[in-house]
Amino acid sequence: MAEKTVIMDAQAISRAITRISFEIVERNRGAEDLCLIGIRSGGAVLARRIADRIGEIENRPVECGELDITLFRDDGSAPEGYEDHSRLDFSIDGKRVVLIDDVIYTGRSVRAAIDAIMSRGRPRNIQLAILVDRGHRELPIRADFIGKNLPTSKEEMVEVQADGGPEDCVAIVK
Predict the structure, then answer these.
(1) How many structural domains compose the chain?
(2) What is the pTM of this model?
(3) What CATH number does residue 113 fall under?
(4) Which domain holds residue 37?
(5) Which residues contact 11 (CB under 8 A, 6 or more apart)?
(6) Does the residue 159 lie in any domain?
(7) pLDDT tens, N- to C-terminus, the chain (174 residues)
(8) Cα(134)–Cα(70) distance, rounded to whole angstroms?
(9) d(CA 54, CA 32)
């Protein structure tokens, strides 16, 4: 079994979420016409936490959804007859969309997510928030908001475990 190293404990992730939330509010001059969309599944958990934090900062709710990118991936991983599990109960037309994921590596998941978003409407812009950026991009994609930059080797894996509540959330390198 591969050795695991905790790179962010629950408290570090909570601080990163707070910092990212303030950066999003500052860059967008508030939460007007702002919506957050988390990439299933790790990004969806983070998106909800960031939306809640921005809601506290701005004293108003922020629309938040979950995006299933399976049908838009370039590796053909969607089985025949696959059903989209996205949950977007709002229009993205004219909105400032913040796309959220837990870890960015090659950029291919983000590319698929952008395609999935654009198939649903025409946002004003799309910004990207990532908890852990591990490098090794294959596409010209860069996050606007980053919780932690973590240079890794291509053999290492970074995993955010957020199955329980916020106090159980950790990021590990395997």
Answers:
(1) 1
(2) 0.90
(3) 3.40.50.2020
(4) 31-74+87-152
(5) none
(6) no
(7) 467 888 888 899 999 999 999 999 999 999 999 999 999 988 999 999 999 999 999 999 999 999 999 999 888 777 888 888 999 999 999 999 999 999 999 999 999 999 999 999 999 999 999 999 998 899 999 999 999 998 877 877 787 876 556 655 666 665
(8) 22
(9) 11
**Distance from C-alpha of 18 to C-alpha of 170, rounded to nearest angstrom:** 16
Give domain status of residue 163, yes or no: no
First to last CA, the chain: 9
Report residue 79 as tokens.
């089985």
